[in-house]
Amino acid sequence: MSAISFKTLTSDDITTSRTLLHESIPITGTLVSGTYATASSSGREGNIKTFSHGMFQSVYDYPYTSSSANHIFDITSGYSTFMTMSAKDPDQTRNLQANKKLNIHNQMAMQLAGFDTNGNIKRINTTLSGEANSTHGRVFISFSRLLVKDEIKKGSFSLVLGTGSAYATPMSQLLTLTDAEATASYKSNSPAGEYGLLKVNGTGLTRGMIFYQAGIITLDMGLVFDTNSIGFVPSNTEFNGADQGANPTHKVDVLMASASMDQVADAIRHRIQNVSFNNTTELNSTIYFCRAHKGEFNYSSNPTYLSGSKIRVKTIPGSGNEFANPPMAYVTTVGLYSPDNELLAVAKLSEPVKKTPINELNFRVRLDY
Prior knowledge:
By secondary structure, this protein is of the alpha+beta class. It has helices spanning about 30, 85-90, 100-110, 145-150, 180-185, 220-225, 250-260, 260-270; strands at about 15-30, 50, 55-60, 70-80, 140-145, 150, 160, 175-180, 185-190, 195-200, 205-210, 215-220, 270-290, 305, 310, 330-335, 345-355, 360-369. Strands 1, 2, 3, 4, 5, 6, 7, 8, 9, 10, 11, 12, 13 and 18 form a 14-stranded antiparallel beta sheet that branches. Strands 14-15 form a two-stranded antiparallel ribbon. The longest helix has 15 residues, at about 100-110. The chain is elongated and about 95 Å long.
């Protein structure tokens, strides 16, 4: 008898499974704005990274110059060509970073909404089918892949914003946006994957969208904030020295048009009280059932198992019976091989398992990826 070293696995010996693992991700507003000391030169916290192009900000969980800092999200803003100039800038004199805002909006629209049959960029709206858009511009928050993993779990997202009219006390009035209804009503006609609507908690009023696989949310500024009463700056003036009282009914418009994109990001961060969601890690597994029947794998393939080209077994002295005791082996390792006998994976047992002609073993080997 010789040791059996290989056994072919059939389709009945192989199966697959898919498991979704979730992790709760809480982001407090104090981390986004207020936890770390403000740099005197920029007026921003040490965990807020800005760039020379001025098109977005990056938020970290620790001062970004530290090697232990983790990227949380990027925040930017823009508006589309469908907005009229009077909506972009009521005074039509302070349209700051206009091309960059258009470019950001078009970039995000291409990614999240795609193109229509004529090759035109679709508008970002609740159905991505071309309805009239808000005339107040949008803010985009793109969460780090470190937090989102494979996707945001549907129905788990919550964003609490301060909508108090005074800049100094924004949390005097709160607005909670959730995707609670998206579990059963999410949409999938986006090139970025599945998305849901962010609605005011308890009212069903849509104020934004969340793209689950992309890890991006977008807020319609004109719908989220009251254009008649909201304050975005810490002083009595609007941006670039224009008197805030000159345009009392266009404060969101003034913010989106007259402020720089960094200033828009500052204004939104100042009003974030809390963000929370569950991420999703998709774990795919292939399971191999490695069966050793009673007549298989009863002899070790270790060379020391042979003596004089014969299998080394226990004998009873004087009995004259060379095979008085049955052969046995101890299983310590299971190897998975390709059809060309190339070793692909190795599974180690926690302890050796005895195998003899009077027992059968069934090992379950799982590969996760």
